[in-house]
Structure formats: C-alpha cells, structure tokens
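Our platform keeps sequence and structure together, in a single record for each protein. Because each token names a local backbone shape, the row as a whole describes the fold. One such record is reproduced below, unchanged from the form in which we store it:
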Amino acid sequence: MKYISTRGVCAPQTFADAVLTGLAPDGGLFVPESIPHFSEDEISSWRGWSYEELAFRIMSPYMTGDVSEQKLREIIAAAYSGFRHRAIAPLVQTGHNEWVLELFHGPTLAFKDFALQFLGHLLDHLLEEREQKVVVIGATSGDTGSAAIEGCRRCKNIDIFILHPHQRISEVQRRQMTTVVGSNIHNIAVEGNFDDCQNMVKASFGDQSFLPEGRQLVAVNSINWARIMAQIVYYFWAALSVGGPQRQVSFSVPTGNFGDIFAGYLAKTMGLPIERLIIGTNANDILHRCISGNDHSKKPLVHSLSPSMDIMVSSNFERLLFDLYGRDGDAIQELMETFNRTGKFELDSTALEDAKALFSSCRVDDEQTLATIRDEYAVSEYLLDPHSAIGLAAGRQCRTSAIDPMICLATAHPAKFPDAVRQAGYPNNPPLPQHMSDLFKRDESFDIQPNDLAAVQKFIAANISV
C-alpha cells in the first residue's frame, strides 16, 4: 500500500514513511492510493469477533509490506490492554433504535486514546526498527495532548512537545497533560487559541530547520494517517453490534477537526452500509455552514462549553475534498491557496451535491448543549459530557429514519468537563475514575510561551534530549 498527498506533488510513500512524515512535504495530507473494500458477506462473518480481532482485519490492508502480521497483532493487543471496559467500546441504548457509543474508557477518558495508544506502540516499533530518534509535536484543543503523552511517554526514541491554548481548555484536560512526569515530555501553553497552535505545528512541519541535525518531526494530530486508520475500527464494531451490515446505520459525530467523522466516511467507502453521517458542530460551525449552505469561511473563534471542538479550520476536511474533487491534487492546491489568501472558498456544484449525499449537519450552541445534558439525565440518569451531548442533539435533529439504528459517538467522559455538567444542573462534579482520583493533588509542569512561532521553535530546539 502506497500513500499519496492530497495536493498531488509529493511522490508516493510507504505506510511507515507516511506515518513518520506526518504532513506531506507539499503541504497536503497523506491518503492511501486506494481504499480496501469488503463485501457484505465478509463483514457479516466478523460478527462476534473481539475488538482486537476486528482491528487487525480492518487495519492490516493499510499496512501491507511495512508491519508484519504478528507485530501488528502485538501492537493492537498492547494498545487496548489498558482500557477499563471489557468491550473496549461499549454501546448504551438511549432511545428507540438509538445508541451512544462510549469511546472514553481508555487511559485519558477520551476517544483519542483509540488512535494514540495504537500510534504510540506503532512508533515505538518503527523507530526501534530504524534506530531513529524523532521529535513528536502536536497541538491540542484539550484531548489529543493527554492521549498523545500517555501513548508516547514510554518511547525512548521520542521527545514530545504538546501545544495547548493557555487558559482555554478545562482544568481536568490540562492536568491530564501537565502532571505526567518525564524528561522527554514538554507541555507548552501558547498565549493564543487552538488554531494558532495548529498553525504553528503545520508551519514547523513545513520548515524543520530549527531542529538539531539528524532529527525530524512526527505528527500526533489527526493529520497523521495512522490516527484516522485506527478510528475506522469502531464504526464497524458499533454497526455489527446493532445488526449491521444487514441493517443500515447512521452515525452522529461531534466534530471539530473532521478526523473522527472522516474515519466514518472511510468505513462507508470500505463497504459498511452507513445511511447518514451527521456532523455535529458547536458555535464554531464552519463545517455545518459549508455542508448546508456552501459557506466555507473563517469567522472569529467562539470559546464554548465544548472546547475540544473550538476549531475554525478543520484540517482533515482536505482529505474529504480530495475525494470530492476526483482526487485532483491541483484542484485541492488551488482551493487551499484561495482559503489561505481570502479566508474562504466555495465548493463546485458537483462536490457540494456529493457532500450532501454523504453528510447531514447541525449546529448546537451552548444553550442547546446544556439542555441536552439536563434532559437526558432527567429522563434516564445518563450523564453526557458537552461534546457527546452535541453528537446526541445533532443526531436527533438530523435523523431521517426511526427504523434504522442511529449511533451517537460519546467522545469524552463527563468528569473532564465538570463546569459544563454543573451548569446543566448536575449537583456535583462527576467523579473521576479511580486511576485518576488524585489528579488535583498532582504537581503540574508546563511552560507558557507567546503566540509566536519563532519563540516556540526556539523552546523546542533547546529542550530536545541529546
């Protein structure tokens, strides 16, 4: 399997090179040259498999020639051994043919553990094999950072630097990152927003001259293909659990950087019968505006009760655009240049029609988010975090069939967002799981840096281990 750039200039890469390169040298994102496809009979035969068995079957075609079958099985087993639920991704029924897929039973209580536990063990293997040391750099709107640190902290060939927007994530999210001790772990609080952090990461990949000789950057944000690949699995897992593939399933996904729902699009492309993919946004609704009204334009970032979705530029949307435009790298390059120059673009009529055939979308503001948390708890005593509440609210508004199952992705544990949960009327802070019960007693360590690329790069260069 080879990987190509969405902007069409970069030469095809192996899976291992695409993972270790992260952002393509031409500024695009890596995607497979072709997408594996499974028949309905083949998918049906997987019913009853364990999560680990299913992960191996779905991911292995993407890694052919780079990771042996035995090693991949070992990586998968290690990645999910620390999850606190035997089902790995359990389903909870919340209504008639309506389920919540709980993706927060990993070590950092967020869906990103599914990809970043896998990626950490994969990087450990690839770097040991190549006898190579790298610098991991990532931007987080709250959850990616802690999941990346937890996934990579034991890797002796990695120095990890995570950028988060200073004072713009929840205290639980911050402490999950800043209380992890290790000489190779560095948390940087940038005096800006998430988009500023993400832009610094992209700029650093574009020009790595600030690094010492012999080092290169590796991405842990969802620009890294391995993260998207690992997230495909739970779409198959959930659909099989509620009668798929014989029954079509819809998925509602709280969406920020478009990586999680893009994995759902790939599951559909691979043969999983998905009726609708529903994009749930908060007030930062560029994706909803684009799908519903062809308005892909930047607006001032709103700081919401769902901070992990406080993103105005959704990087992974470029991967979808690449397919919508017939995998024409020149067309994507032109679109991205227009967006960088003007802060907006419009899809052509064919691309927009194709997008609407695949996706529905919905904007859920803070008031609606709180109402969803409050109402669901009042009816069933099921407690949602604000991001998962957006997924459930969007799914209910956009659902087209009461017969086919709808699955809403619960992307984080409510204990990560106690302020929002209390605002919704829950009387106390939701308790943290036992392994994290002393979180507020742990010492923190992080460095505040100005919203300045040169200053951040200077800090990174000065703190890379010899």
Summary: Residues 77-466 form a domain with the Rossmann fold fold (CATH 3.40.50.1100). The chain has one domain: 77-466. The mean pLDDT is 95.
